[in-house]
Amino acid sequence: MGQTNLLIPQVKVETRSWTSRVTIIEHIPIMTCGNGKKLKRYVLTDDEGNEIAATVFLEHVRFITPVIHLFNVYDITNAQVRFVPSQYRIINNQYHWVLQRDTLIRPVLDHNPNLRYFFDNLTPYSMVVKKSVGDINNIDIVGAIIDFEEPTIVNTVNGLKNIQRFTFIDIEKIPLTVTLSEEMPKIVGPILEEAANKMSIVVVKRLSFASYKGKCI
Q1: Residue 172, exposed/middle/buried by CB under 10 A (0-12, 13-18, 19+)?
Q2: Residue ranges of the Replication protein A 70 kDa DNA-binding subunit B/D first OB fold domain (predicted)?
């Protein structure tokens, strides 16, 4: 008999015939890994706030992306569970789920998503601006984008780097500049530009400080 409604930590590589009820709290645009493979990632949470990343490889994206949507609740059954080396983890979980075209994903319409744990982790801007470089890593913020620059190339100690800057403002009207670098201006930049033009409220996760002509985030 299958194991239903397991919490995320209860699902291991060796677990068989399981189902877990999760909310989609984050989706990451298609990216290219170091080995050249293209993939899309999601972050899922259960009712107790446990999180896990879910990976969809390019050949399965067209089957999965129309099925799951941000902040909706789903029962996911028998996704592949794989170990993730620490250097490739996007959240603090040693496992991730691989979603494929034959993964059973059922929407749950009568279950309100539990987003308390998601929003409890947000960092106020007033705390961010007081920190020094290296004091903050993997923070989450929420705010409206009030301005952005076009992508540009800057010269750093590690060579030329693509960057794009966005200015956020929070409920206390404190501005905060967020800099995208490497491939992020191409992948995430258009999404944030659209949010800025629509005056949308945006949640950005896993920000960290870096140094370029002063501190930036």
Answers
A1: exposed
A2: 10-106
Backbone angles phi, psi at 52, to 5 degrees: -150, 145
Q: Establish whether domains 8-112 and 121-216 are of one fold.
A: yes
Structure tokens at 80: 């592949």
Element (H, E) at 136: none
Distances (CA, A) of 66 to 63, 105, 171, 180, 204: 7, 11, 33, 27, 23
> Domain 8-112 is in which class?
mainly beta
Amino acid 19: pLDDT: 95
Q: Residue 166's closest CA among 118, 207, 214?
A: 207
pLDDT exceeds 60 at position 215: no
Q: pLDDT band for position 126 (50/70/90)?
A: confident
Q: 207 with 129: CB under 8 angstroms? A: no
**Domain boundaries, given as residue ranges, for the chain:** 8-112, 121-216
Q: What is the CATH number of domain 121-216?
A: 2.40.50.140
